[in-house]
Design goal:
Blueprint lengths: L4 H4 L10 H11 L5 E3 L10 H12 L12 H15 L8 E4 L1 H13 L5 E6 L5 H7 L3 E6 L10 H11 L3 E5 L11 H14 L2 E5 L24 E6 L12 E4 L2 H12 L7 H12 L2 H22 L6 E2 L7 E5 L7 H12 L1 E5 L10 E5 L4 H21 L1
Parallel strand pairs: 1-11, 3-4, 3-5, 5-6, 6-7
Antiparallel strand pairs: 2-8, 7-8, 9-10, 10-12, 11-12
Helix pairs in contact: 3-10, 4-10, 5-6, 7-8, 11-13
């Protein structure tokens, strides 16, 4: 039997660039002492108090069919949090609960694009972006954000792509995975101007909104004329180390949210209520819990920048957010993929090649700050020494 073209072409065939990650994981499972600086999952599990709240909610009977839009109290809490953090007026009617940020991404693309439409996304990109677009029957078109612009997307480039393709939507991510870049107000205003000029929807992935190391989080939804054309993706995964709980949301115009609720009714039928109650508990715990999680990555970033500053062969992309650093290793003469494979073979350190995130990140590698500080410092000192050896051998 023949499967649908939509599912057969979800990843566009060929390697997805994640071979180094899979090889590092296989080596670790086989007993090699691999230091994995690959994916952005927390090394410290969800706080036990959140898990206790989840357990108590399940035992208390919150195990039946959930309310599809999400618990009203949770939607209220998210709306209040978004309004406080961004300044954009938000109520529960602007919020729909989704099964994680990934479920929210897919739903946002489904809400904004018809079959055959074009959807833009900024490159470098999180790995699932083009597949999410293909999954709703649209055509993904990358818009390059270049190293010479510190990976800040340029409004002129986006405008040219939008006019050439007639795109219906643009997907951005700030703070940004994989580079750690936080889009400036100038960048966001340029993006907003293009969206308004072309009639595009903006899908803004803001799951790293608590991980801003310099300045404050900026949401394009708060800019003039953008609330009615922006869908914001949020999640508990990064802010509260709840990656496995799969709880996210979309914030958008009331009419769009009404239709997204209808979509959820026909797909996931909502998220388990005991998980939602745990998320509500976590949000009600306030800033202290979030500060503990973000503080961990703030300290690791400072340490990493100190170690990497000693290298003459590695340039650290200016980053101000998220749990990653992007390293420019072009001075070694290798591609990101070759560098990552050799580093894994010779030093048993796993990093992600920049090519995993699109062609604009070629010649770079991404490190995730997801191991404790002693292990991270050791890994980075060895990485710097490795780059120096490559340069001397060339």
């Amino acid at each position: 039997m023949q499967l649908s073209k939509r599912i057969l072409t979800l990843t566009d065939g060929g390697s997805d660039g994640w071979d180094v990650y899979r090889r590092a994981r296989s080596m670790a499972e086989a007993g090699h002492p691999v230091i994995e600086l690959t994916i952005g999952d927390h090394d410290v599990p969800t706080d036990p108090a959140i898990l206790d709240a989840m357990h108590a909610a399940a035992l208390d009977g919150s195990v039946g069919y959930p309310i599809v839009p999400g618990l009203p109290e949770l939607r209220d809490a998210i709306a209040a949090r978004v309004q406080a953090r961004t300044g954009a007026p938000t109520t529960r009617d602007n919020v729909v609960i989704m099964p994680g940020g990934q479920g929210a991404l897919f739903s946002a693309e489904a809400a904004t694009c018809d079959h055959g439409d074009t959807a833009l996304f900024v490159e470098p990109y999180y790995a699932t972006y083009p597949g999410s677009i293909r999954g709703v029957g649209a055509t993904p078109v990358p818009v390059p954000a270049l190293p010479e612009h510190d990976f800040q997307p340029q409004a002129s480039t986006i405008l040219a792509a939008a006019r050439e393709t007639g795109a219906r939507s643009l997907l951005i991510n700030t703070p940004h995975n994989p580079t750690g870049v936080v889009y400036t107000m100038k960048t966001l205003r340029g993006i907003a101007d293009v969206c308004k000029a072309t009639g595009m929807w903006l899908i803004s992935d803001e799951v790293y909104d608590t991980q801003v190391w310099d300045g404050a989080h900026l949401s394009p939804r708060a800019l003039p004329g953008m609330a009615e054309r922006t869908l914001v993706i949020g999640s508990m995964s990064k802010s509260h180390a709840m990656t496995g709980s799969r709880i996210g949301w979309i914030v958008g115009p009331e009419e769009a949210v009404e239709h997204l609720i209808n979509l959820s009714t026909h797909t996931t039928y909502g998220l388990p209520a005991y998980i939602q109650e745990a998320a509500l508990f976590a949000l009600q715990e306030g800033a202290e819990l979030e500060a503990e999680i973000t503080g961990r990555f703030r300290h690791r970033r400072a340490l990493a920048l100190e170690v990497l500053s000693k290298s003459n062969r590695i340039h650290t992309v200016p980053s101000h957010g998220a749990m990653y650093l992007m390293l420019d290793i072009r001075a070694t003469g290798l591609s990101g993929e070759d560098f990552a494979n050799l580093l894994l073979d010779e030093e048993e350190i796993g990093v992600m090649p920049g090519e995993s995130f699109g062609r604009t990140a070629a010649g770079h590698v991404r490190i995730a700050l997801t191991v404790d500080e002693a292990v991270l410092e050791d890994a980075l000192r060895r990485l710097v020494a490795f780059a120096e050896r490559l340069a001397h051998a060339a």
